[in-house]
Structure formats: structure tokens, C-alpha cells
Design goal:
The complex is a heterodimer of chains A (about 375) and B (about 110). Chain A is globular and about 65 Å long. With about 375 residues, chain A is mainly α. Chain A starts with a helix and ends in a 9-residue tail after the last helix. The relative contact order of chain B is 0.22. The chains are: A mainly alpha (about 375), B alpha+beta (about 110).
């Protein structure tokens, strides 16, 4: 239940919101259908609480109903995003990675529906635990991790005014990652364990290629790299380490462990959601949210009057405490979860809550600008 | 009837257009690639953006159009965003560019 609440309620909602904003930017166009996005939002807002409540009462029929609403919403979202992407006049690895992420989301949602149907009408004899494994990896690596890589490839050069754009290595990384994900499915479906090492290497090298291109962007940045960007970078690094470590048969998801599959999955999800995804969302959010609010409030007035800049809509003094509390929080959480020390996990969560406070402190000028009737923000 | 504006007047007017991400005007940032002022007061402006696919390109071109239309003698304005040549930091006004560690630009 917690995993679905966090992934579908917290991370996916943000990813869809960002997808609707970023993909049109990538394609230099408008979203294909705003109305379809509203329908998706309604289905998602209806489906997530329905599904989570179903999990809470262990009522899988309700999980299925909620899941179906989410699934239909995802189909609509993918159609909308693909139609928007069809207007691309220049394909780059960031856009392709982004689109593959939504393809894997669609495939994974179909798998989730199959797993639920299978509980009532047996349609496959495949081991449910193997299907859960595929579901987890496709959700975290196929969808969220690839969204994160695609968004970082696109947004970092833009925010940092970098003269280097992602190139051949990211293209290659995208190919390797997708082959690795296909192998993950084969391993889960047909127990082809001999492919495990190949899958890990493909995913690890694919990620490494993306990282090299991202590092080149950082090193050729013309703007100062702030602690918000570094929070995003730490998130990416933590994700790379976590996914390779889990796939390689770490304490989590290893065959010989005292933990059951549910406990293992719980730790995996917790570390992934609060690590790479939360850190990246918060880190990048300190740049994206002021930018989007600036566009919303000031764009029509450009050339008519003196306006604040995007930088004026955030407080840089909050970025270092944000970085410290989130990164330290995740490390404590990871140490606590892996050693079974509850106090470590509690400290970790507390630090992450403090980090959330610093996030809103950083964004206070942007939020004030969004809510203000008459905007009077002084230039520093 | 107002006289045809000169290049300097156009540049001075464009200095009021600030790139909201960087906080520097588009002239000192090196985004103005070409200005062509025709006899009848029509102005063709070719601008660059700092990164390809920059989401601010429509905002900047609309802002430039509004500013230039305010110049006496300008009858019409056409702003084009070009992607070649690529913008590089060397296009910036060196007096405006603050060097940090030799490379980084502090906005």
C-alpha cells in the first residue's frame, strides 16, 4: 500500500505534471490536448485513493477498480504525450528517454492489471513473486529512473547554460537500458537467470553513459552550480548505486535472506522513493517551480515593464540546508533500514521532513508571487 | 513623420529586455544576432537563445517585438529566433560577464 501511495500518489503525480510541462518545451510546441490532461488528472485523483484503500482493506476487487481508473488515465496520458512528441522537429536522447519511460509505464500498468485479474481468474501460471519483481523493476527503473535521466539531460543544460548537449553516449545509454529492461522481463517470466549478469551490466553501463553526458554538462556549465542542482546530482548518484546494487543480488532481493519478499520490496521502494526520486524532485524543483511560476505570472508582461527575474523567486540561502538535510536523511534512512535499526530510519525521516521545510523556505518568494494579487517583488 | 530609427536606438531599446533566467539584458548577453532596418521603418531582428529548445524563446521574441514597436519611426517588427550560430558565453559583453573561477557565470 505504502509503495503505491508513494509511487502513484507522490512521485507519479509530479512526474505527470512535469511531463505535461517539459515535453511541450522539448518539442517547442503546446500540449496536444489540455482537456485530455484534465481527464487523466480526474482519473488519477479518483483511482489512487480507491486503489490504496483497497490495499488497506486487502480487497483486491477494489484495488482492481482503482487500478483500472489509473490505467485508463495512463493510456490517455501516454496518447497525449506521444501526440505532443510527434511534433518534435529535432529528436534528442532526452526526449527519446522520456518517451521510453512512458512506454515502460504503460507496459507496467498492463502487467499490474494482469496480476490483479490473475487473482480472480487464473490466466497465467507464472510465479506471482516473479511478476511482482518485474513490476517493481519496470516501475522504478523503466519508468521513474528513465524519466529522471531524461529530465536531467534536458533541464541541466538549460538551467546551467551549458554549451555541451547530451550526445552519442546518451543515445547508447538509452539503447542499453532498454535492452537491459527487456532482459529483466525475460528473467522474471522464464527464470533465465543466466541473463541476470548481462542485464545488470547493460543497465549499469547504460546509466554510466548517461552519467558521463550529465557530468560533461556540469563541467561545461556557464552558471554557478548551486546546492539545489547538487541535490539533484546526489539523487542521481544514489539511484545509480541503489539499482545496480539491488539487481546484483544485494541484501535486498537476495535469495538467501531472512526477509520475506514483501519486506525486501518495502526497503527497495523506500530507499528508491526517498533517495533518487525525492532528492531529484526537490533539487530540480528549486529551479523548475520558480521558472514555471515566473512564466505564469510575468511572461505576458515582458517588454512592457521591469520584472523580477526567475532567480528573484527563490531564496538561495535555503539550498545548502536543503541539501544537507535531504542527503543526510536518506543516508540515515538507508543505514537504519539495512541494519534493522529503527532509530536510524526515524532520524532519516525526521531529517527529510526538515529538508521539506527548507524546500518550501527556498520557494517562498515564488509561492508568494503565485498567490499575490498585485505582484510587487523587489529586485535584490 | 518620424525618421527611420538607427541601429543604436534599436540596441538601446533592446537593453530593456532582460533574460529572466540569467538576469542580463539580451544585448549584453549576446543574443542579438542581426538587426536590419528597412526604409519604411520595418525592423527585422534575428535573435539567438542560450540553449536549443529554450522555453523562453517565444517570451523573448514577443518582448523584443513589443519594445521595438514602441520606437518612434518603427512601423512593423519581425523577430526570428535562429539556432545557428550557437550561442556561446564568448558572445557576452566582457564587462558584464563576471568571471568566477575563470569560467563560471554568476547570475
Amino acid at each position: 500500500m505504502t509503495a503505491h501511495l508513494l509511487i502513484l500518489g507522490w512521485v507519479s503525480s509530479l512526474v505527470f505534471g512535469a511531463g505535461y510541462m517539459i515535453l511541450p518545451v522539448m518539442a517547442s510546441t503546446r500540449l496536444w490536448s489540455l482537456r485530455l490532461a484534465w481527464v487523466h488528472l480526474a482519473l488519477h485523483a479518483l483511482g489512487v485513493p480507491w486503489m490504496v484503500t483497497g490495499f488497506l482493506w486487502m480487497d483486491f476487487a477494489e484495488v482492481g477498480h482503482g487500478g483500472s481508473a489509473i490505467f485508463v488515465g495512463i493510456i490517455l496520458a501516454v496518447i497525449n504525450l506521444m501526440k505532443t512528441a510527434s511534433r518534435f522537429n529535432r529528436w534528442d536522447p532526452a526526449a527519446i528517454t522520456f518517451l521510453f519511460a512512458f512506454f515502460w509505464l504503460l507496459a507496467n500498468s498492463a502487467l499490474a492489471i494482469l496480476m490483479l485479474v490473475n487473482k480472480f481468474i487464473p490466466v497465467t501460471e507464472l510465479d506471482p513473486q516473479h511478476l511482482i519483481g518485474i513490476h517493481a523493476h519496470l516501475g522504478l527503473i523503466g519508468f521513474l529512473w528513465m524519466v529522471l535521466l531524461g529530465a536531467s539531460l534536458k533541464l541541466l543544460p538549460m538551467f546551467l547554460i551549458s554549451e555541451r548537449e547530451p550526445g552519442a553516449l546518451s543515445w547508447l545509454g538509452c539503447v542499453l537500458m532498454n535492452i537491459g529492461l527487456v532482459l529483466i522481463i525475460m528473467i522474471g517470466l522464464y527464470s533465465y537467470d543466466e541473463y541476470r549478469v548481462a542485464a545488470i551490466w547493460l543497465l549499469a553501463i547504460g546509466t554510466l553513459f548517461y552519467f558521463i553526458d550529465i557530468a560533461r554538462t556540469l563541467f561545461s556549465a556557464r552558471r554557478k552550480i548551486d546546492w539545489g542542482i547538487l541535490t539533484n546530482v546526489f539523487g542521481l548518484l544514489s539511484g545509480g548505486v541503489l539499482f545496480v546494487w539491488v539487481l546484483a543480488g544485494s541484501p535486498i532481493c537476495a535469495e538467501e535472506t531472512v526477509l520475506g519478499i514483501r519486506e525486501q520490496m518495502g526497503i527497495y521502494f523506500t530507499l528508491a522513493i526517498f533517495g533518487p526520486f525525492t532528492l531529484s524532485i526537490f533539487g530540480m524543483g528549486t529551479r523548475i517551480i520558480p521558472f514555471l511560476i515566473w512564466q505564469l505570472r510575468y511572461a505576458p508582461r515582458v517588454g512592457r515593464e521591469k520584472l523580477p527575474t526567475v532567480q528573484d523567486l527563490s531564496r538561495k540561502s535555503g539550498l545548502l540546508p536543503l541539501w544537507i538535510s535531504l542527503c543526510l536523511g536518506w543516508l540515515y534512512l538507508a543505514a537504519g533500514q539495512l541494519t534493522g535499526q529503527i532509530i536510524g530510519a526515524q532520524i532519516g525521516i525526521m531529517l527529510m521532513l526538515i529538508g521539506t521545510g527548507w524546500f518550501f523556505y527556498t520557494l517562498r518568494p515564488a509561492l508568494r508571487a503565485m498567490l499575490a494579487d498585485d505582484i510587487q517583488i523587489a529586485n535584490p | 513623420m518620424n525618421a527611420r530609427p538607427d541601429q543604436e536606438t534599436v540596441l538601446q531599446q533592446l537593453k530593456q529586455l532582460i533574460d529572466p533566467e540569467v538576469g542580463i539584458n539580451v544585448v549584453d548577453l549576446g543574443l542579438v544576432e542581426k538587426i536590419n532596418i528597412q526604409e519604411g521603418g520595418h525592423v527585422d531582428l534575428i535573435m539567438l537563445v542560450t540553449t536549443p529548445g529554450c522555453p523562453l524563446q517565444d517570451i523573448l521574441s514577443n518582448g523584443a517585438k513589443r519594445l521595438l514597436e514602441d520606437i518612434p519611426g518603427v512601423t512593423s517588427v519581425e523577430v526570428t529566433i535562429a539556432h545557428t550560430p550557437r550561442w556561446t558565453a564568448e558572445r557576452m559583453n566582457p564587462e558584464i560577464m563576471k568571471m568566477r573561477g575563470g569560467e563560471e557565470l554568476e547570475s
